[in-house]
Every structure is written in structure tokens, then in C-alpha cells.
Amino acid sequence: MRKHKQAPKLIRQGDVLLIPCGSIPAVAVPVPRDAGRVVLAYGEVTGHAHALLEPGVELLTAADVRYLRVDEVSAHLLHEEHSELAIPAGTYEVRIQREYSPLETRQVRD
């Protein structure tokens, strides 16, 4: 019997999407924390943030792509308007949902 390879589990909170990835490029540089938080995205309208507080979490960037490394058993993605999400240990590519219109492509406003 053939075993089917299970696709990695995507994690979504509002307009933030975390895609499990195998590794982070060696040229990636750390993104500084904001008031002790790792902020994945800020709401353009509300100013709320998709953020993680655990010390074993790091946001990095390389060639305009952002990566999240979670060294803890799990971390918690927080946002004022969404349910808290547990993020398992691992590496993730961070993507922000975009809207399309015939005139422009833009980030979704949270």
C-alpha cells in the first residue's frame, strides 16, 4: 500500500498566512522586535498587530520575503480581533493576503 505524503498545515489568522518551509536562507537578517513583540503585520486601519511574545521566536527577512522561526514547543499568535493561535515549533514563510482590483493590487486592510 502506498502512503500519501501529507501536505504541510497552513496557519491563517486574518490576513496573515504562515506556510511551513524547510529552511530560512542563510542571508536572512533578523527583524527587530517592537516593544518586546515579534510583529508579523500591523492593521492599517486599527493599528492592531499580529504578534508573538515568546522569547524563542524570531522574524527574519531575505529578498523581501519574511520568515518566522519558532524554537519553542509552540508559540501563540495574538491579535485583538482574532482568536489566539498556537504555532508549532518550526520555520514558516510569512505572507500577507492581498486584494485584487482591475486598477491595483494592495494588502488587505485589517
Describe the structure in your own words:
- The chain is an all-beta fold.
- The chain has one domain.
- The chain has strands spanning 11-13, 16-20, 29-30, 38-42, 49-52, 57-62, 65-77, 85-96, 98-100, 105-107.
- It is globular, with a radius of gyration of 15 Å.
- The relative contact order is 0.26.
- The mean pLDDT is 85.
Helix/strand layout:
Blueprint: E1 11-13, E2 16-20, E3 29-30, E4 38-42, E5 49-52, E6 57-62, E7 65-77, E8 85-96, E9 98-100, E10 105-107
Antiparallel strand pairs: 1-2, 2-8, 3-6, 4-5, 6-7, 7-8, 9-10
SSE string: EEEEEEEEEE
**Average pLDDT value?**
85
Helix content: under 10%
- Helix-strand category: mainly beta
* Strand residue content: over 45%
Defining key terms:
single chain, 110 residues, mainly beta, six-stranded antiparallel sheet, two-stranded antiparallel ribbon, 10 strands
Characterize this entry briefly.
The protein is an all-beta fold and 110 residues long. The protein has one domain (11-107). 0% of the residues lie in helices and 51% in strands.
